[in-house]
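Lecture notes, unit on protein representations.

Consider one protein chain, 315 amino acids long.
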Amino acid sequence: MEFNANCSVVPDSTPTDAGVAGPGVLLSFIVTNCLSLLLSAIIILLGLRKSTSAPIARKLLLSFSDQQILTGIGIQSVGLAKMKTMVPYHFFIIWLLSLLSTATNLSTLLALVNDFKRDWVLRWLRQFLMLVNLFLGILSGIFILQSVMKNLEPRLPIACVWTVESRGHSSNAALAIAGTIAVIAGQVIIFIGSTWYLHYRQHPRWIKSVQVVGLLMLIASGIGATVRVVMESQAFGTPPESVKLVGLGEKDWSFGQLVPLLLLMLPVMSTVEIARGEVRMPPSRVDDDTRPLFDGELEFQPNPLMDSQGSLFRK
C-alpha cells in the first residue's frame, strides 16, 4: 500500500478499475436512481389525488433509498481512501455516482417525509446519513474543483492537486469550474432545506408544490449525472484520450459486476414478503430442542394450485 502519492513522475498509462467504473457498478446506481425517482413520482402523484397510501411502493422506495445512500457513502469513502493512487478520471466517476445517490435519497425524503416524522429514530438516522453524504460530497467536489483549476495531469493521482504547480487553464475550464461550484453550493442549500423539511412539525398547504418542484429538479439532476457517467466511462462511452486507459477491464462482465445488480432483487423480495403479510411465528416460546415447535397441529397455508395432500394437480 502506498502512503505517499508520487507526483514527480507522470505514468505512461492508467490501469482500469472495474470496482469503480465497471458496468455492473454503474448500472446498479443508475437503475436504483431511476426506480427510486419513478416510485417517488407515483407516491407523490397518488398523494395529490389522495387515492391511496401505496404501502408497497413506499416500502420498496425506502429499501432502494437505504441501499443507495449506504453504497454512495461507501464508494466515496473508497475514493478518498485511494486518492493517493486514483486518477481524476475515476474520482470524477465516483463523484457523479454520489450525485445519483443524493438524488435518490432526496426524492425518498420528498415522498416519505411523513413516515420519517412519525419515528424519531428513523428521522435522525436519515439526518445523520445525509450529513455524512454531504461532507463526503463536498470534500470530493473540492478535489474535483482543484484538479480543474490547476488542469492536473490526467494520469497523476488526484491527491497531487495540493502539491503540483498549475499547468494553466484548459479550453472548458470556466464552464467546468462554474458547474462544480454550482453543484457544491447546491448540495449545501439542498441539505439545509431538506433538514428543515424533515424536522418541520406542521404540514403547510404548499408542501405539495415543494414535492412536485423538488422532484422535477432531482429528475433533471439524475438525468444529467447519468448522461455524464455514460459518456465518460469506458464501460458505456469513451473516456478522455489523455487518461490512456490500459486494456478493456471496465467493459468486462465478471461476477463482481453481477453482484451489485443481483442485490437490487433484495428490496423486491422483501416487498413480496410484505405484500403477502408477516411471517407467522409459533404462539409459544421454545425453551430447548426437546420441546416440539408446535404442540398442536401444524398450521400451513396450502398452495392454491395443489390439493391438501401436496399433489400438484387436484383430483
